[in-house]
Amino acid sequence: MTCWFSRARARAALAMGLALSAIAIPAGAQDLDSGYCQLAPITDTRVGFAGREIVREVAVELGQRVARDDVLVRLDPAGLPARLERARAELRQAERAMDRANALEGVLVAEERDQRETDLAVRRATFQEIELEMQRLTLRAPHGGIVVEIMAREGELLEDSVAMRIVELSRLLVEADMPLGRFGSFEPGQILRLETETGGEAEARITFVDPLADLASRSFRIRAELDNPDGFFTPGTTCVLLE
Question: Which positions make up the signal peptide (predicted)?
């Protein structure tokens, strides 16, 4: 997903003689040499699953804040619970047989002992395989954040689908297009001062400076991170870099 301000859009707006204020960019952004920027979530994850599955339960609501490993969606397990119980019973039986073999170590022939070891290994692998399949049917949050999209519905049959989108807004990504004349003026670790389109000022730390320039727009990209613990700054809004 491309988050930074479209160069093509900027060129088109200039060609048509549109006032930059019409696209809700701060007044300082009217100077192209200042560099446009846009705020976006650093962490934006679409959680999904593979295969054909029926949604049994959607455990969260739109706009809900979740923590890492919180349950998001449960899929229909069909006959897996019964298979898991059978595999558990067979594993216990194989373990008891192995215990008896160990107790009779001086009596059992090597071939019979090897057979019991092999059977135990197979039963253990089968149980673990079904257990992992059961875990796959419970979708959990990969990180903390806010649920901003829910694509799964209870009772629906979905196939290789994205079920949910989660964004974390405590830190934001600042992506900017800078004019080619300022190439070499920025480096990772440098602090940027910026003004958002809502009028707030902030400081962000540069994490990346593009070593390549875009010849069509005569510009290059920089990226910075902005702390946003109180949610004051809004991702998706534009900003302008200050001197």
Answer: 1-29
